[in-house]
Design goal:
Largest sheet: 5 strands, antiparallel
Shape: elongated
Strand order of the largest sheet: 5-6-7-9-8
Helix content: 25-40%
InterPro entries: Kinase-like_dom_sf (IPR011009), NEK_Ser/Thr_kinase (IPR050660), Prot_kinase_dom (IPR000719), Protein_kinase_ATP_BS (IPR017441), Ser/Thr_kinase_AS (IPR008271)
Family: Belongs to the protein kinase superfamily. NEK Ser/Thr protein kinase family. NIMA subfamily.
Pfam family, one: Pkinase
Oligomer: single chain
Number of strands: 16
CATH architecture of the largest domain: Orthogonal Bundle
GO molecular function, one term: protein serine/threonine kinase activity
Keywords: ATP-binding, Kinase, Nucleotide-binding, Serine/threonine-protein kinase, Transferase
Order of helices and strands: EEHEEEEEHEEEHHEEEEHHHHHHHHEEH
Radius of gyration: 34 Å
Number of helices: 13
Strand content: 15-25%
Structural class: alpha+beta
CATH topology of the largest domain: Transferase(Phosphotransferase), domain 1
Amino acid sequence: MNLFERSKQISVFLNKDIAVSCETQIHSHMSLDDLLTECKEKLNVERHSKCLLYDSQGAELSDDDIEYLNEEEPLFLSQGESFTKGSTMALYNQVKSLGEGGFGSVSLYEHRFTHARVAIKSIKLRSLLSPEDINRVYSEIAVLRELKHTNIVQLYNTFTLNEEICFVMEYCSGGELSAYLKTFGPLPEAKVYSIALQIVDAIRYCHNSKIVHRDLKLENILFSSDSYSMIKIVDFGIAGMFNLGKSGEKSDAGSILYIPPEIYKFQDNRANPAIDIWAMGCIFYYLLTGEHPFMHETVKEIISHIEKVSYKPLSNTISKPWHRLIKGMLRQKPSNRWEIMRIQDHLEKYVDDPDSNVSDDSEEEENKKTMADAKIQKFNTYTKPINLLQVPSNHLIGKSHSPSRSSLSDKNPEGRKVFPKSPTAGKRVANLFDQKK
């Protein structure tokens, strides 16, 4: 450290008990032992205890680190035990509560030094009463650690503190999409296009990562700021992994108004991208109309209408591309629902030209067209004109579908059949010998 550089004032917390802390001055040429001695005295730690100092990332300090300590980063004094990740809570001051739930709470915190704001979700361990509850918590941690996307909430850190699991997450100050819609919904189509494209891009990213959200709903979509332009998808607690052609993770969990018919009918509860497609269809419908497509007075009525895919058609005041899209997404059979790429292409195609003509075929008509196109493609594969001289001889010889062979034959004086040589046979032999030379 430069002799003329001013001293630095550093906050030091007791590891495992951040309620105990002190301020200490770091002077020129101070050694790690000097710093430890001063911290032990101020924190009333036994002078002869073998202590360690950690930075806020849990790295043990050495003499070489003293010069580079930052006043904005606190230190943690350990009495020999390993760094406790929960000690990082010392970096934050609680601002306010954001919400309460069955498992715990979410609060807004501000970093003591950088003043950056984060949302910390605390889940009480004693509230996790079943293996499914525990799996849900750790599934969310595992999923969020893997997903890095502009429209998916970012997980910064996780740790256990005072019998609670804490998630330090990106703070979305704009609040839930559901609350926004109560004030401003239904939304103009231009705004719906903007939100829908962000949702689709995030879910496409999830599906490419073989993750199905399985609980998409208005309450799990937040605005990142008060500008209400960028959205963030949250709550991956029941997200499931899937593999095309293989069994996906099974679950009947979800939100009643967004669950597709195959789950209610006990046909298939495996993680499948089609589950998210259905939920997005319900969300887009609500953004356009201010109503849930399957909302009714009783649970029984809701489920009945979902199973029959019976919902009120969109108003004629809504442009045709949305009519086409909603019909493509809210289909009874999962395999008939539009795939994520088709949805994204459709939105991108009509976002700047919503009044252009759009076909309005029914699901049955579209399936017929798809099957017809497949048949035509298959037929063209077999009927494409080819040069017979380019076909390998074993493709024609000895095959019952090659009637021309007998008609080309003739008999020699001994009565045996002979066949004319290919006009290029001699050239091919010559070329072969030329190459060997």
